[in-house]
Amino acid sequence: MKTLIFNGSPRPEGNTAFLVDELRAMLEGETVVVNAFTANVSPCIDCRECWESHGCAIHDGMDEIYGHIFSADAIVIASPVYNCELTPPLLSIFSRLQNFYAALRFLGVRLMPMGRFGAVILTGGGDGSSAKAESSAKMFLRHMGAPSKALVTSLKTDSLLACEDDRAIEEVHALGNMINELAKNR
């Protein structure tokens, strides 16, 4: 069982990192964490090469990430909420999923295996909504063949840190158990 976690936080000791670490501690099998802020991935430039052939014209850190996406059994998107959305480096990474869509739309080829497990972890403070970030994360998970089956939030981090948010910690542990059960049933 391989779980791929996209971590959209720049803070290694922040709220999102705490919940990712809690999840990783629960998981059996291989776990790969992609840190969006250090991944060295350029955004899609709409060159449209993927309209003509499989793959992406840009070769950078995304080449390795594609391999992890293809081999993952479960995919988790974890991000703080910035201006009601996922963080910009995550959006850059996920813009490069355009080639999956283009392969299906223009070449009639489904590159992504379907039927994998997807989940979303969101953290944030302030008074903004997380609905847009949740919607975006769920869309990207669908593009990766891993529709979202779970959502964990800790959204009052300016007054209650994720490490003190018992409900969020409980939900992350439940998520870990769900992924481990999935592994046992494969």
Going across the biggest sheet, name each strand in turn: 2-1-3-4-5
Secondary structure: number of strands? 5
What is the CATH class name? Alpha Beta
- Low-pLDDT runs of 5+ residues are none
Element order: H for helix, E for strand: EHEHEHHEHEH
* Helix content bin: 25-40%
Task: Provide the structure class.
Answer: alpha/beta
Q: Report the sheet-strand fraction.
A: 15-25%
User: Helical segment tally?
Assistant: 6
Report the principal-axis shape. globular
What's the main sheet like? 5 strands, parallel
CATH fold naming: Rossmann fold
Q: How many separate domains?
A: 1
CATH level 4 superfamily: Flavodoxin domain
**Radius of gyration using CA atoms only:** 16 Å
| CATH architecture assignment | 3-Layer(aba) Sandwich
**Mean pLDDT across all residues, rounded?**
94
- Roughly how many Å apart are the termini? 9 Å
Question: What does the model show?
Answer:
The chain is α/β, with parallel strands linked by helices and 186 residues long. It has one domain (2-184): 3-Layer(aba) Sandwich (Rossmann fold), CATH 3.40.50. The protein has six helices and five strands, in the order βαβαβααβαβα. It has helices at 15-26, 62-71, 88-95, 98-107, 131-143, 166-184; strands at 2-7, 30-35, 74-80, 117-123, 148-154. The chain has a five-stranded parallel β-sheet with strand order 2-1-3-4-5, sandwiched between helices. Helix 1 runs parallel beside helix 6. The longest helix has 19 residues, at 166-184. The radius of gyration is 16 Å and the shape is globular. The protein starts with a strand and ends with a helix. 40% of the residues are buried.
